[in-house]
Description:
Distance between the termini: 117 Å
Order of helices and strands: HHHH
Largest sheet: none
Shape: rod-shaped
Radius of gyration: 42 Å
Number of helices: 4
Helix content: over 70%
Number of strands: 0
Amino acid sequence: MAAKKKKEAEFVGSGDYAFRKISFRDIVSGRIFTRDVVVKQLPYFLFLTVLAFTYISNHFKVEKLLKKAATLNKDIQELRIEAITTSSDLMYISKQSVILQKVKEAGVELEELVEPPRQIIITK
């Protein structure tokens, strides 16, 4: 019981200077950083500062990655549109009527088959 009262007395006695009011003069002069309470909490403040810088850095990296992903998605969409257009043009050009028209325009003397092609079978 006596040890408990001694701890309470030490805590109450040491807190008189530590918890007195902070004035503007203490902040401007820097005396606030010499107080025991602030000195004891300095590692915690440094940890929070490092954590804040890490969080900000992580945020900037994520923003950069999101911008890059948006750019890549836009490029993919443009390439997909280009592929569909090219495929459509190729299908149009490969139609029999278009090919026949191109052959006639070129002046090549080719004729369209009237009969279906025959298969030649060789037996040994």
